[in-house]
Amino acid sequence: xxxxxxxxxxxxxxxxxxxxxxxxxxxxxxxxxxxxxxxxxxxxxxxxxxxxxxxxxxxxxxxxxxxxxxxxxxxxxxxxxxxxxxxxxxxxxxxxxxxxxxxxxxxxxxxxxxxxxxxxxxxxxxxxxxxxxxxxxxxxxxxxxxxxxxxxxxxxxxxxxxxxxxxxxxxxxxxxxxxxxxxxxxxxxxxxxxxxxxxxxxxxxxxxxxxxxxxxxxxxxxxxxxxxxxxxxxxxxxxx
Length: 240
Prior knowledge:
alpha+beta
């Protein structure tokens, strides 16, 4: 996995796992709201504001943007943009980044985000590029997006059991979320069709061994897109 400098202040997201109100995504209700032109969450208008880097968008707006994206035609969770490999290669062999490389990072990141607008890793990458190019306002806009997406995902549970998982709309968002939170993943384990468990590297100050993620949003797409032939072959493992 591509390693980049994490620009987030991790402390902002290390919210107590106790005493929170779990907000399990109600996909049927979300779809009903985002297709209603009179709703404040009407998707075309929300997405227009998101693309324009509107920092007045609320957590509720991001909740409908993130989970509502699973109903959009552009949502293709089993297909990754080709530019991901090109972007990864820019980081694989460099520790310093001259201006021409930052231009490439920005270009590749924007293409990826045009296809997968809530990609945590590449929002962070773009913020990194903007910051190092001295474009602080743009970097802050990207970090605002990243902060709100993380907040939305963490509001869906505590991630500590199958009954209270964190809900993500791409499989790799589970790894990316933990990376943003500065948590090292050791192993991904498939528990069921909808639940995955990410074992993490043990920390001396924590009893937590891993986190659970719900990926059921992947199946909101129609059957002509989701089919057995397209899905990666994964060994079913049961967490012990």
